Amino acid sequence: MNTTDIPALAEVSIEPMGQSEDHERAVQEAIDALRRSGLEIVPGAASTLLRAPLGQVWDAVHTAHTAVQPYAERVVTNVRVETRRDGDDFAERVAHHGA
């Protein structure tokens, strides 16, 4: 299996920093960019879960980060990634995100 194809679960938070004309819009742009990726996403109060092959997760995070850049002086993105090769598809954790 190619490493970019390994099933992954990522928890992502993207934070516009500094002078921001519209913080709420910046966050919404990040969520919209993740939705446009076509990946399974589960938005939560402080972070969003992504479940997809690892390579697609990294691409989606990059796209969401750059979507926020026009709305803030700085953008900080925190990503926590778990990969598995044991067949677990993370469904239980995705179902409980933000619950």
UniProtKB/TrEMBL annotation:
InterPro entries: MTH1187/YkoF-like, Thiamine_BP, UPF0045_domain
Protein family according to the UniProt entry: Belongs to the UPF0045 family.
Entry-linked Pfam families: Thiamine_BP
Domain Thiamine-binding protein stretches: 10-92
Gene Ontology cellular component list: cytosol
Protein name: Thiamine-binding protein domain-containing protein
